[in-house]
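note to self: the first set is below, dont mix up w the second
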Amino acid sequence: MTSPETIPTDISPLATYKAILRGVIENRPSGTRQRLAEAIGKNRSFISQIINPAYATPVPVQHLETIFHVCHFAPPERQAFLNAYQAAHPGRLEVVDTERPMRRLVIELPDFGSPDLNARADHIVLGVARGLVSLIATNDDEEAETLGGSP
């Protein structure tokens, strides 16, 4: 396991938080990468990229809370990760603090008998979900205008 205390201090903050994330995921039950990929709507290969310190692919800030939830970060792991994330991406964490809590909805779809059709159906459902999430920003903007604030 890669604990925050065992990560070398001479690596970049980006590599540091990726090493912490990789250590957490490697210490979880089999299937965690797949569950995480499904929860954030990405391929499993994307998870491999965001947990590999050798890749420059950053962890998108909008996925942090989902990552913490799915991977069950311990408080010291979470704090070490957030410290390194803040060092790597100054100013991005404010989005996490102001983001609305998310809820998970599990739906069952029929098997369409074809991997291509199943993938298209999954894509459609995920697109609808992302569209619903985009309503949050629209609603917040409208509320700010109603209250005399600026969006």
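second set (the one i keep forgetting abt)
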Amino acid sequence: MTGTQWQHPKLPSVLPSVPAVQDVTTTPEQVNAGMARITNPSETPIYICALDNCYRLFPSRERVMAHRKRDHDSEDQDDIITWNE
């Protein structure tokens, strides 16, 4: 399969809902200080395990694969969503 034939997996338009967890550590001063900033793939690698609707986030492909072997008993390299490749 050539690079033009292979397509990255896509997230569904609606992800499964999970209960929200309240942030009890961030202060109003931290929020007002504007700690957020725009990032890009080279500064913030993101790999998402989309196997079996998992959608857990990881900082590298190696970490996704270790997770899959441990949690999914799989070494399948498909269904990884990323903006880094």
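remember for set 2: Helices lie at 28-32, 61-72.
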